[in-house]
Structures are given as C-alpha cells and as structure tokens.
Specification:
Helix content is 45%, strand content 4%. The chain is built from four helices and two strands, in the order αββααα. By secondary structure, it is mainly α.
Length: 92
C-alpha cells in the first residue's frame, strides 16, 4: 500500500512541471523596404490567427508585436466583413 501511494506522489510531482507551450505563429510579411504588412486577402495565414471558436488569438499566443497584432485584428475584421472569413465557427 505504501508503495502505491509513493508512486502516486511522484507522478503528481512530475505533472506539476509539465508544460504545454504551443509554438508561436509568425505570419507577418516583411517587404523589401523592411516594413511588415498583414494582408486581409491572405486568408490561409489569417485562419491560423483565429481560434476554433472564431476569436482572434492573443499576442502571447501568436508572438506578434503590438503593431503587428493591431494589423492582424484589422485584417481579420476586414476579411470577415468581405465574407472571406467567418465571424463564428461552423459548430456542428
């Protein structure tokens, strides 16, 4: 009995240090002039910036700078308005 409890305690200890970090996505395009731009017509890369429920992912998840995140938000909203991206997930 004592041995089973010991295993359980060790397992709990290792679970505490296990992390589930997701890789950061980079979709910002850099032009020849050195400026970054995120286009609303590039729906494939914008789909990666949206969660399964249709929410725009945070800077922490995407690894974007504040300027890039504002560009992402603007591009996603424009793509939604133009019906290139859905406002919500297809749920089913």
């Amino acid at each position: 009995m004592a041995r089973d409890n010991d295993r359980r305690e060790r397992k709990d200890k290792t679970d505490k240090f296990q992390t589930f970090n997701r890789p950061k996505l980079k979709i910002a395009r850099t032009s020849a002039a050195g400026k970054t731009y995120i286009d609303y017509k590039d729906t494939e890369s914008l789909k990666k910036m949206i969660s399964g429920n249709g929410k725009i992912l945070s800077r922490k998840r995407t690894g974007a700078t504040s300027m890039e995140q504002r560009m992402v938000a603007r591009a996603v909203k424009r793509a939604r308005y133009m019906a290139l991206l859905p406002y919500v997930s297809a749920g089913g």
